[in-house]
């Protein structure tokens, strides 16, 4: 399975900073053909990013979208608008959207379905909080998020990201064992929804991924890529992540 490594820039980078990043990054990765490299800038920089990655092997993603096609929804962005801006993917259900913008599983599910209907690949995020992990509820939370978020969703053009909330932006990465355990559980839950097709869905790990820990995380059997926040903001650092050392 081809690895999928995505940069989630969150609320960082102006248009000129985006251009500067890509001028450095695109030449660095031009010979990497065996990994899907994806960058999700903020909405305001999508167009500049699309210009900067034109003709390259790097794909554009959005960080969010609304599920309606058009209309009176002040401040929102429709799936077709993202396609028009050059996006191939969209991140949906990130824990920051769930936490700060009160997105629940119903909202997340509507967004995933709308993305697929429009022809965008969904990067669908799940993950437990520290309290939930410490209370022994990790699997229960993940199963519920996966099953509700993916109700009536096709396994085609779908990527799942496991991002333990306690590992995001904290410098505390899940151990390889913790990541593999949850990824295998997600795979099993996907098999309940999609049977054999579950093996074709890439499951990304996210949460304090760095050039230092990426090799061992990517070596875990059910880890098929990464969703990277802080360490994707500098070209050198994100380049080191996408050129991680593969096991023979
Ligand atoms: P960090 O890599 O900064 O921990 O962020 C992870 C994340 O939330 C990516 O979506």
Topology:
Elements: E1 3-8, H1 15-28, E2 35-40, H2 46-53, E3 58-62, H3 79-84, E4 89-92, H4 95-100, H5 105-118, E5 121-126, H6 130-134, H7 138-149, E6 158-162, H8 176-194, E7 202-206, H9 214-218, E8 225-228, H10 235-242
Helix pairs in contact: 1-2, 1-10, 7-8
Walk me through this protein's architecture.
This protein has helices at 15-28, 46-53, 79-84, 95-100, 105-118, 130-134, 138-149, 176-194, 214-218, 235-242, and strands spanning 3-8, 35-40, 58-62, 89-92, 121-126, 158-162, 202-206, 225-228. It is an alpha/beta fold. The protein has a single domain (3-242), classed as TIM Barrel (Alpha-Beta Barrel). Strands 1-2-3-4-5-6-7-8 form an eight-stranded parallel barrel, surrounded by five helices. Helix 1 packs parallel to helix 2, helix 1 packs across helix 10 (235-242) and helix 7 (138-149) runs parallel beside helix 8 (176-194). It starts with a strand and ends in a 6-residue tail after the last helix.
């Amino acid at each position: 399975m081809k690895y999928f490594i995505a940069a989630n820039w969150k609320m960082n980078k102006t248009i000129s900073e985006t251009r500067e990043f890509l001028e450095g990054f695109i030449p660095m990765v031009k010979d990497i053909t065996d990994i899907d490299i994806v960058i999700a800038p903020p909405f305001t920089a999508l167009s500049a990013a699309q210009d900067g990655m034109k003709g390259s092997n790097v794909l554009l993603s959005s960080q969010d979208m609304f599920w309606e096609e058009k209309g009176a929804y002040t401040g929102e962005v429709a799936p077709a608008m993202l396609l028009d801006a050059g996006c191939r993917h969209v991140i949906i259900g990130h824990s920051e959207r769930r936490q700060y913008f009160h997105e629940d599983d119903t909202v997340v599910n509507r967004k995933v379905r709308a993305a697929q209907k429009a022809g965008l690949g969904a990067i669908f995020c799940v993950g437990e909080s520290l309290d939930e992990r410490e209370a022994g509820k990790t699997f229960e939370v993940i199963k519920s998020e996966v099953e509700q978020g993916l109700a009536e969703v096709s396994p085609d053009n779908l990527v799942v990201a496991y991002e333990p909330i306690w590992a995001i932006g904290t410098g505390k990465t899940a151990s390889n064992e913790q990541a593999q355990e949850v990824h295998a559980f997600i795979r099993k839950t996907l098999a309940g929804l999609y049977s054999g097709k579950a093996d074709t869905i890439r499951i990304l790990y996210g949460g304090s991924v760095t050039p230092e820990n990426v090799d061992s995380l990517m070596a875990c059997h059910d880890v098929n890529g990464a969703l990277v926040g802080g360490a994707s903001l500098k070209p050198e650092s994100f380049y080191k992540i996408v050129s991680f050392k593969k096991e023979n």
